[in-house]
Amino acid sequence: MAPQRRGAPKAPEGSGAAERRRPSSTKSVRGPWDMRRKWLRAAVLGACTSLAALLLWGSLGGEDGITEVLALRSEVLPGRFIEVPCSEDYDSHRRFEGCSPRKCGRGISDAVITRDEARRIRSVAEKGLSLGGSDGGASILDLHSGALSVGKHFVNLYRYFGDKIQTVFSEEDFQLYRDVRQKVQLAIAQAFGISASSLYLTKPTFFSRINSTAARTAHDEYWHAHVDKVTYGSFDYTSLLYLSDYLDDFGGGRFVFMDEGANRTVEPRAGRVSFFTSGSENLHRVEKVCWGTRYAITIAFTCNPDHSIADPALT
Fold first, then answer.
1. C-alpha pair distances (Å), 139 with each of 3, 133, 251, 301
2. Cα–Cα distance between 284 and 70 in angstroms, integer?
3. Catalytic (active site) residue 294
4. How far apart, in Å, do the first and last CA atoms of the chain sit?
5. pTM of the model
6. C-alpha distances in angstroms, 190 versus 73, 81, 182, 186?
7. Where do the record's region annotations for Disordered lie (predicted)?
């Protein structure tokens, strides 16, 4: 007869056998804690990943507070104008009826200057800047005053290089410069409903070349927020003609209007003209260029003929 299987004898309470069986119940208690630990690890990993992404985005030129892009590089804009209330900056300066800003705002157009004209005017900047260049990231060439960045200083290129200038620039270069200035002047006049003849070119009007080289002097620190009318009292209308393409030729370097509660950017595109009234209604800055080279020309206008400057001439 086969032996009968007996059940395991019940261990007395507190015995070692009972204690050995307890881990099974402990395991069931640990389960939720293990899940919490796994969730926490996943959350921390996700946060680290997000932080890394933000840092990478920042290194590519993105900045906090950017809430609206007024003009994408990929767009071709026949014209876009945004009116904003005028500041009181103009009240402390002599007013010129029919010219001093009563209507304030900012505009962007890709229809004023052609891409070919931008390429040609950029070559003028490149020829002039090849004679010098800042030790820092921002170099200036002013064909009106002759100011040229060289190392940590400025020289007057007409005096410093003398007759050599005749072999660097041509009369066609200077005529192109005048033609571009006139087109920008007319576009500003039309946008703000004033006569082009009431606007006068003023200083400083200059080419800029910006790269990612660290600043060496205060002149290289182009990225600080400022108001043109406060910095240069003669300015009434400011314009920028971009001569290179955002994300093709350089990273960072976007133009930022700093409005209350929101930043609004313009992405440079060769041939794009950005213009605006020069008061505190258009507080602005330029992002740091993080790679490549950004070319532009700042063309400033005043309503006061006492602050006017002439077009540059080769001879």
1. 102, 5, 17, 22
2. 13
3. yes
4. 129
5. 0.80
6. 24, 11, 12, 6
7. 1-30
Residue closest to 245 by CA, chosen among 279, 283, 282, 289: 289
Measured CA to CA, the distance from residue 153 to residue 135 in angstroms comes to 9
SS (H, E, C) 249-285: CEEECCEEEEECCEEEEECCCCCCEEEEECCHHHCEE
Other residues' Cβ atoms within 10 Å of the Cβ of residue 123:
13
Q: Is 262 exposed, middle or buried (0-12, 13-18, 19+ CB in 10 A)?
A: exposed
How far apart are alpha carbons 266 and 95 in whole angstroms?
30
| Residue corresponding to tokens 């507190």 | 14
Q: Which of 266, 267, 254, 273 is nearest to 180 (CA)?
A: 273
102-to-90, 99, 159, 187, 198 alpha-carbon distances in Å: 9, 8, 41, 17, 14
SS3 label, residue 208: strand
Cα 208 to Cα 299: distance, rounded to the nearest angstrom: 11
Per-residue pLDDT 10s for the chain (315 aa) are 444 444 444 444 444 444 444 444 444 445 555 555 555 555 544 544 444 433 333 433 444 555 799 999 999 999 999 999 999 999 999 999 999 999 999 999 999 999 999 999 999 999 999 999 999 999 999 999 999 999 999 999 999 999 999 999 999 999 999 999 999 999 999 999 999 999 999 999 999 999 999 999 999 999 999 999 999 999 999 999 999 999 999 999 999 999 988 999 999 999 999 999 999 999 999 999 999 999 999 999 999 999 999 999 987
Q: What is the DSSP letter of 246?
A: B
Residues constituting the chain: 315
What CA–CA distance (Å, rounded) separates 162 from 156? 10
Q: Which of 181, 264, 272, 294 is catalytic?
A: 294
